[in-house]
Automatic annotation (TrEMBL):
This is Unannotated protein. Residues 270-291 are annotated as: Disordered. The chain crosses the membrane at residues 303-324. Keywords: Membrane, Transmembrane, Transmembrane helix.
Amino acid sequence: MVGRLLAVLVALPFLAGGVTAAVSADRGEVVLTFADPAVVESSGLVALDDLVVTVNDSGDSGRVFAVGPEGRTVGVTTFAESPTDVEALAPVATDSADEVWVGDIGDNAAARSSISVTRVPVTRGDRSGEYPTFELVYADGPRDAETLLVDPTTGRLHVVSKEIFGGTLYAAPQRLSADRPNVLEPVADALAVATDGAFWPDGRHLVVRGYGRAVVYEWPSMTAVADLDLPDQDQGEGIAVTADGRVLVSTEGQFTDVLEVPLPREVRQAVAPERPTSGADRGRPASAPAPVVEEPRALPLPLWLLLGGGAGVVVLLGLVAWAVRRR
């Protein structure tokens, strides 16, 4: 009897760890699946009206894919013959909803003297041309980056460096110059190993993702308000926020899915657009934003082993003492 109990107690930590992993590994809802075999390394994502826009990672020619709700490519814009390392997309913050910024900002060796962004039209149907391109340089030396952000209220470009021990958010000049390099100035710390980011449409929050998690920040304070677990993906390098505030993510690979990330209620409340002030409310102090309460996080397997093993020892000792007393 004691032997059976001991076997069960030893197995409990492993069972608990397995159940936790299954519960926490939420794939998210499939929004669409890329049907175009040419989309092989989705490394940037933008939601424009009823279209999803993406771009391949380094190694592809300079082209942007407009993808319809069914997952089929409905338009390709070719903007360059051989870019260096395209890694990111961001919407252009204007009344026009058919343009994106393309970020040729990758630099794995942190050796490029400059990077660049190109303002590219994206519509249904194929097109090509030479489009406005702007050179960027970091104030503190070259950096690898895969995250391009645009403040929707000002149109200002930002880049987040991809670094193991913590990224840096850089701001471009408010007005970009086509005649000389535009200096990126460091303004805040950001998520380590950042692979993409996006603003909410009202400009009050932004999200920066890595391979397994994302952080939601208030803007412009860059105060972290939520930590999001992302669906399991082979190499997640795309994130977008839709006009109605939904968060979408993509990953490299052929025929991969674009997924919607489920947001906890507290996060939805935090990023919800502010309601316009009515005449009756004018002059009253603004109500405090709803607090973000971090949801319980699944314990990693090693901790389950530790806790489960400790509990097993305690219970086992109790059983042995009880058996001795019964003799």
